[in-house]
Design a protein that fits this description.
- It catalyses: a 3-demethylubiquinol + S-adenosyl-L-methionine = a ubiquinol + S-adenosyl-L-homocysteine + H(+); a 3-(all-trans-polyprenyl)benzene-1,2-diol + S-adenosyl-L-methionine = a 2-methoxy-6-(all-trans-polyprenyl)phenol + S-adenosyl-L-homocysteine + H(+).
- By secondary structure, the chain is an alpha/beta fold.
- Helix content is 33%, strand content 24%.
- The protein contains 7 helices and 8 strands.
- A hairpin with a 3-residue loop joins β6 and β7.
Length: 246
Amino acid sequence: MILASDTVKGATIDPREAAHFGTMAKDWWDPKGSSAPLHKLNPPRLRYIREQVDAHWGGDGATFTPLAGKTALDVGCGAGLLCEPLARLGAAVTGIDAAPENIAVAEIHAAQSGLAIDYRAGGVEGLVGQFDLVTSLEVIEHVSDPAGYVRGLARVLADGGLLILSTPNRTPLSRLAMITLAEGTGTIPKGTHDWNKFLTPEELTALLKDAGLRVTDTRGLSFSPATGFTLSDSTSLDYFLTALKA
């Protein structure tokens, strides 16, 4: 789900990260493959996005298509694990990822699912247009310039729109869970994360503020063997941030 390198001046993407995630493309939709953790993450992700969408646009939580009439952009979309649910929620969805392998798999899967999603290989720096909803989940910890990346996200966010990010926190717990255990046991491919590139909520909030955005919600994402991934008050492992234009 990583946004990879492109030739646009000022690109924020690390080519090594792109290559790493590109090798995972063929297994992206396999719930037991290398992207299995992403499949397990999707239910709490969608719950959080739905809560924020309903709160922002006055939804009642009952309609099946709360994003009808809205445009959505998923940045670092991988093979479309989030894009497809957003399309089913009614949005006109664009997904961008600079690993062409991921985009190829995403296009095939969307066609098989009967979904019209505009997939593009590239980075946010080269994207033209603005979107009502911009999502970028578990991506910013992989980019080469987090501040520039956030500015890129802010640029494509429409006035009155909603930006939702998620990323691991830089804590001893995240190092233990994501690197020592998850990568050490092969649950996720070795080399997926660099703990030193993780951002704390305070650091990411400051980057969003510098880009002209205002954080309106912070929510933790926790994991336990009994319940799996769940939304939580604790941000010590991973967290979501929602922001609006200030």
